[in-house]
Amino acid sequence: MAKRRQGAGSQVSRTYAEPVDVGVSDGRPTRFVWRGRLYTVLGVLDHWVISREWWKQQNPDLDTPAEREFWRIEASAGRGARAATYELRHDLATGQWMLARVWDLTG
To answer: Which of 90, 89, 84, 86 has the alpha carbon at shortest distance from 73?
Structure first.
């Protein structure tokens, strides 16, 4: 699914939900590998944690991680490659990382 943001050098976002390998330093992502390509994190744009309120559900899925950490970052695949915005999701209970969304510059 793609969504477009308005403005100069508009951006299109796409959702992926694909597993990624993430390198972390001081609790922050520093690099990740997606589809066999290494991306270097240039900066953290936003960070938040979402807690599943299982006690409010009648039939909670206890296999679903209770907390997910999100990192919106700027990253590049190397010299000469254009930086883009990526959203990484970290399931704290399982330790698994996913690439949730990518914003690409279009023009």
So the answer is: 86
Helix, strand or coil for residue 101? strand
All structural domains of the chain with their residue ranges: 14-55+62-105
Map 39-52 to HEC letters.
EEEEEEEEEEEEEC
- Token duo for residue 48: 């938040």
pTM of structure: 0.77
Are the CB atoms for 47 and 70 separated by under 8 Å?
Answer: yes
Residue 32, burial from CB neighbour count under 10 angstroms (0-12, 13-18, 19+): buried
Q: What is the pLDDT of residues 59-97, one digit of tens each?
A: 656 665 568 999 999 999 988 889 999 999 999 888 999
For 77, other C-beta atoms within 10 Å of its C-beta total 14
